[in-house]
Amino acid sequence: MSSEYIILQDTPHVETQAWEAAVEAPTRKLTLALAKPETATPDSGFLTPNAVRNFTDQQIKVFAQFGFANHNPFSDADYADAGAEFAHHYADLALLSPLVLKFDTFTADQIALSKENQILFSILPPTDLSQEYIETINEKKIKMLCLGFLLDDNGTPVIEKIRKETLSEAGFQIALSNFLFPLVDTLIHAPSIAYALQRAPELMQIVFCHAGNLCHQPTAERLHLPWRDILSLCWNLN
Q1: How far from the centroid of its chain's Cα atoms is residue 47's Cα?
Q2: Which of 166, 199, 208, 232 is deepest in the core (most CB within 10 A)?
Q3: Phi and psi angles of residue 173, each rounded to the nearest 5 degrees, phi first
Q4: Biggest alpha carbon–alpha carbon distance for the chain
């Protein structure tokens, strides 16, 4: 099957009203954006083309950044064949979907380009965090999640468990995609984080920031910052 890329914008002018008007309609539909990693490695995939096809078959718009699949065993062409539409820059993705996924940490520049109340979901945990980085997230009331915080019943990070149980980089990507798919599907369809947590309780472990609050206690203690438990933010426990 030949790959035909759907290119959304050759030269983005994301600050213009015309561009915002052009991309506002898709954000009212079910959408998902896939940002490319800062450094593409053979294991930096997290959703396979088959998973993307499952989303597009549900009439979910999937937008990917060129270079998303700059690693084996898949290519951008494979995701185009699965129905993904492509944009050149992260700024485009930030306007196209309220939910953006990325393998590694979102950069400070990407946080600045993100919309208020956006959901940013990374696979690897944030590194080299600063108080300023977290303040920017919270000022925009960005909901940041990280799969790397999820532990199994024995306290082992789920990502490490998946990696140890697979024999190849391709196997790791497929297993990680299979694990991640229902969580992402829940976030896409949920009208709120509180609703998503009820449908997929494991999400409670991975919420880093929500509604202008830091929710990850170890980070808060390391940086001497206040934090709020995600349960207290989503439900009145009094």
Answers
A1: 11
A2: 208
A3: -60, -45
A4: 58
Half-sphere exposure of 212 toward its Cβ, with a 13 Å CA cutoff? 3
Residue ranges of alpha helices (H) inside 46-192 are: 49-57, 76-81, 90-96, 108-113, 131-139, 158-165, 169-189
Q: Is 100 helix (H, G, I), strand (E, B) or coil?
A: strand
Give 141-167 as a DSSP string.
Answer: T-EEEEGGG-B-TTS-BHHHHHHHH-S
Q: Which residues pair with 151 in a beta bridge?
A: 157
Nearest partner of 99 among 63, 141, 150, 57, judged by Cα: 63
pLDDT in tens, 164-178: 998 888 889 899 999
DSSP state letter for 75: -
Neighbours of 134 (CB within 10 A): 23
* pTM for the whole structure: 0.86
Cα–Cα distance measured from residue 228 to residue 238, given in angstroms and rounded to the nearest whole number:
15
Q: What is the token pair recorded at 48?
A: 């396979």
pLDDT at site 118: 96
CB 122 within 8 A of CB 147: yes
End-to-end CA separation in angstroms for the chain: 58
Nearest to 91 by CA among 146, 3, 16: 16
